[in-house]
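Good day; I would like, with your permission, to put a structural problem before you. A protein sequence and the structure tokens that stand for its backbone fold form the material at issue. The record follows directly beneath this note:
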Amino acid sequence: MGVPPKTKTRGGASGAPAQATPPYAATTPAPQRAPVTERQVKLLNRLLDGAGEEFEHGINARKYIALTGASKPTATRDLADLLEKGCLTKLPGGGRSTRYAVALDEM
């Protein structure tokens, strides 16, 4: 039927077998998503509040920088992270003019 579990021997002189080695199942926990940062929460709140025409055409990295004070690389990473988490959707266009909107239908 099955192969018996492996056994370890003690380091002592007796050589008596130790208890069976536990199987390798689920020894590593599943990776967890990083929580949303304070900057990202601030952005999502502003987008959900519908702050007038400020975000009528979505948010881009430049507006994110102005809102949060983040650097350009951080803004780009934060927006990509929110997109991956399903909080934002990418609007048509791309490159330097990439814009995002809140993913209301997926929430």
